[in-house]
Design goal:
Number of helices: 11
Shape: globular
Order of helices and strands: EEEHHHHHEHEHEHEEEHEEHEEEEEH
Structural class: alpha/beta
Bound molecules: 5-S-methyl-1-O-phosphono-5-thio-D-ribulose
CATH topology of the largest domain: Rossmann fold
CATH architecture of the largest domain: 3-Layer(aba) Sandwich
Distance between the termini: 27 Å
Number of domains: 2
């Protein structure tokens, strides 16, 4: 794998610090679960599936140092701390639930066994995520013709997952199957995941990529320069509404206006059947400094009022299909998502 987003090494969690890309490739080793929690909150690692993997490894790391008699109290503290890091990505809560299940079901086997099983589960979550991305990539690649100019938003690549990526997994699979693909990526203000991360990942793999600013999408579609949109997802509600990086909704509206297919790619671990619609998905509001400053420099008068919602909801009517590791979900999503998730 060309990009090593997160690894487990000698009882440390090692992450590529995504805040410094594309300028510097710095790997940070964490020994304490509170550091892992801070790394998630501060965007050292980001992207829904990667956040899930980091949280699972955070639990496995946290219990390494816990003594027997405090185990129940300490593990609850670990779960609570990691769950509070970022509210929108379903994968975070899904991964913590999986870890909790191991702890509940296996605690009678003794603390040392539970510690080992938690570590194994975290590594399983990591491996399964890569496998899911490879599968969904293949399904997605079949939907797109060759050659295609595919617009993506934010970073739903290897950096946002355990590896390979979701939206970029589809692109990678297209390339692997011999299809011609050119990627258009918008910069994705304010955190610039498109400009900094997606452009970096694709350049590294020699996949043709063109960068645009967020407000150029309408112009490009008006001039028939986009064949399809493929984005990732942070949470998919039971009716098919999708929470993803702020700006996704605007792109979906434009895609509908210009008859451009709009695809969402993500593992089933991003589907949250407990949310009946997008209205129930908590939207993270981030620090205003991400908007008022670029690379530490102010770009606006001091004291101006600032908004910084990190995600938006794209309603299901605007989505052509949702691609997962189990196949392609088409409308009506209300019925098809439930059957898809249950289908093994
Ligand atoms: O704030 P971020 O960078 O964590 O947001 C990431 C996104 O919105 C991605 O599109 C989403 O998590 C899917 S990643 C495979």
């Amino acid at each position: 794998m060309a990009v090593k987003t997160i690894q487990w090494k000698n009882n440390h969690v090692v992450m590529l610090d995504q805040r410094l890309l594309p300028g510097k490739e710095v790997y940070r080793a964490y020994r304490d679960y509170t550091e892992v929690a801070r790394a998630i909150r501060d965007m050292v690692i980001r992207g829904a599936p990667a956040i899930g993997v980091a949280a699972a490894m955070g639990v496995a790391l946290g219990v390494v140092w816990v003594k027997g008699k405090n185990f129940d109290r300490e593990i609850e503290r670990i779960f609570r701390t990691l769950a509070k890091t970022r509210p929108t990505a379903a994968n975070l809560f899904w991964a913590l639930e999986r870890m909790r299940k191991i702890y509940i079901e296996k605690r009678s086997l003794g603390i040392e066994t539970v510690k080992r099983l938690l570590k194994e589960e975290a590594l399983k979550i990591f491996e399964e995520d890569i496998a899911a991305n490879r599968l969904l990539g293949k399904f997605g690649a079949q939907l797109l013709r060759s050659p295609s100019r595919v617009l993506t938003h934010c970073n739903a690549g290897a950096l946002a997952t355990a590896g390979y990526g979701t939206a970029l997994g589809v692109i990678r699979a297209m390339k692997e199957s011999g299809k011609e693909v050119e990627v258009l990526v918008d910069e994705t203000r304010p955190f610039l995941q498109g400009a900094r991360l997606t452009a970096w990942e694709l350049k590294k793999e020699k996949i043709p990529v063109t960068l645009l600013t967020d407000n150029m999408v309408g112009y490009l579609m008006q001039h028939s320069k986009v064949d399809a949109v493929v984005v990732g997802c942070d949470r998919v509600a039971a009716n098919g509404d999708v929470a993803n990086k702020i700006g996704t909704y605007g792109i979906a509206v434009l895609a509908r206006r210009h008859n451009v297919p709009f695809y969402v790619a993500g593992p089933t671990s991003s589907i949250d059947l407990k949310c009946s619609s997008g209205a129930e998905v908590p939207i993270e509001q981030r620090n205003s400094r991400e908007v008022s400053h670029i690379f530490g420099r102010p770009i606006t008068p001091r004291g101006v009022h600032i908004l910084n919602p990190a995600f938006d909801i794209t309603d299901h009517e605007l989505i052509s299909a949702i691609i997962t590791e189990k196949g392609v979900i088409t409308p009506p999503f209300q019925q098809n998502i439930r059957t898809h998730v249950r289908h093994q």
